[in-house]
Amino acid sequence: MPANDLALLIDAARKAAETALAYVGGPLDVRNKPADDTPVTAADLAVNAVLHDMLRDARPDYGWLSEESEADPGRHTARRTFVVDPIDGTRAFIEGQRAWAHALAVVEDGAVIAAVVHLPVMDKLYAAARGGGARLNGKPISVGRVDAPARADVLATRPSMEAHHWPGGVPPVTRSYRPSLAYRLSLVAEGRFDAMFTFRPTWEWDIAAGSLLLSEAGARVTDRRGGRLSFNAAHPQADGVLAANPDLHAALLDRLI
What we know:
Elements: H1 5-21, E1 31-32, E2 39-40, H2 42-58, E3 63-66, E4 80-88, H3 90-94, E5 101-108, E6 111-119, E7 124-129, E8 134-136, E9 139-141, E10 153-155, E11 174-176, H4 181-190, E12 195-198, E13 202-203, H5 204-216, E14 220-222, E15 237-238, E16 241-244, H6 246-256
Parallel strand pairs: 3-4, 10-11, 10-12
Antiparallel strand pairs: 1-2, 4-5, 5-6, 6-7, 7-8, 8-9, 12-16, 13-15, 14-16
Helix pairs in contact: 1-2, 4-5
């Protein structure tokens, strides 16, 4: 059994990758979830089962929060909880794209203390432990230093650039997009993009792992209004996300509030 939570998450992410990749090119049994009409595949469910069994067997006293699991009432009283998205970017997975990820985190008292985002097709494994920095494939990563929106390359959806979101004026950024929210967060942590933001209510399993990668890489990461992100909430959604180095974060937030 791995001696610490980060090592456990890394092992679990690699096992998840083996499971997901076995479905590539085969039947996916795609269905839409009744609650929100988003797609789920046989691969999502198989990965979820593998992660649940592996992680809960190793840490039976931890709570469990996953996009593909029924609610676990025990997570509200557990000191630590796994927060998991078995496949983040399911639509990309269905379409045969590369940018889908496994996103795994351990939360303690509302804060993420260990995190992994793994993109197996792209051979990228991002990992962080609280106070230990962030790494990509074992090498340290850090956020970029661009401090002005006019020079910033950001990851965001097109609707996020609509004027009604920006009382202080739409920032003159260069916008790009990636289908996995966890990957967007990771790319900012890596310094390949300067910021990311989303203004829709955001599920914890999409952002928990990436939020620690960002903070350990030197970013400021908050909700859309600059509020602190807290995880394992009774209703596990955040009020959007804004992430960038502290100076750029402040410049973007000034236009939002």
